[in-house]
């Protein structure tokens, strides 16, 4: 018996999501491990920038100040740039890890509507970074993908700052 076309399409979407999640987990695992060039030993490398930087999500600042603070933290993406696939994949994974932390944080400075907006948007931003990582792993041009990531971060920053202006 043949399966309906919609079922096959749904299965394709599920596989795409599964691959995206697997790629993200791999990137996070790689980002957390680093081989020391001098000793060859593995050392744990902390993701200490962006939304994963300690204290960034613990702020009790006023609403607009907090959203601008999140925009500033996202902008830290631009402090380290690479057009090589490996380092870019790690950086994308680190940003994506920050998205997960942001999604699961309490955000005491925000009301329910702002928290819902932030989480909904962060899920979309996460999906965008998952797609960029998949494209990079599939052999995409690191320079092009890096610029796409730059534009994504610029859009994230602009969205947060625009939301901060709303009363």
Task: Provide keyphrases for this structure.
5 helices; two-stranded antiparallel sheet; single chain; mainly alpha; 167 residues
Strands, total number:
2
Number of separate domains? 1
Strand order of the largest sheet: 1-2
Total helical elements: 5
Percent in helix: 55-70%
- Proportion of beta-strand residues: under 5%
**Low-pLDDT residue spans:** 31-39, 41-45
Largest sheet: 2 strands, antiparallel
- The rough form would be described as globular
Spell the H/E element sequence: HEEHHHH
Mean pLDDT: 84
Alpha-beta classification: mainly alpha
Radius of gyration: 18 Å
For the termini, the CA-CA separation is: 57 Å
Task: Give an account of the 3D structure.
The chain is mainly alpha-helical and about 170 residues long. It has a two-stranded antiparallel sheet. The chain has one domain. Helix 3 (about 85-105) runs antiparallel to helix 4 and helix 4 (about 110-135) packs antiparallel against helix 5 (about 140-165). The radius of gyration is 18 Å and the shape is globular. Helices cover about 65% and strands about 5% of the residues. The longest helix is centred in the first third of the chain and has 28 residues, at about 5-30.
């Amino acid at each position: 018996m043949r399966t309906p076309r919609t079922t096959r399409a749904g299965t394709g979407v599920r596989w795409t999501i599964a691959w995206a999640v697997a790629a993200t987990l791999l990137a996070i695992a790689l980002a957390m491990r680093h081989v020391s060039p001098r000793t060859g030993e593995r050392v744990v490398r902390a993701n200490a920038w962006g939304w994963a930087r300690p204290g960034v999500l613990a702020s009790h600042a006023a609403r607009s100040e907090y959203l601008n603070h999140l925009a500033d933290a996202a902008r830290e993406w631009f402090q380290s740039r690479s057009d090589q696939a490996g380092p870019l994949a790690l950086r994308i994974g680190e940003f994506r890890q920050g998205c997960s932390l942001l999604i699961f944080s309490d955000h005491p400075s925000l009301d329910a509507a702002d928290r819902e907006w932030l989480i909904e948007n962060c899920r979309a931003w996460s999906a965008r970074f998952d797609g960029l990582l998949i494209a990079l792993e599939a052999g995409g041009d690191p320079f092009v993908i890096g610029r796409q990531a730059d534009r994504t971060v610029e859009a994230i920053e602009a969205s947060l700052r625009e939301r901060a202006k709303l009363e």
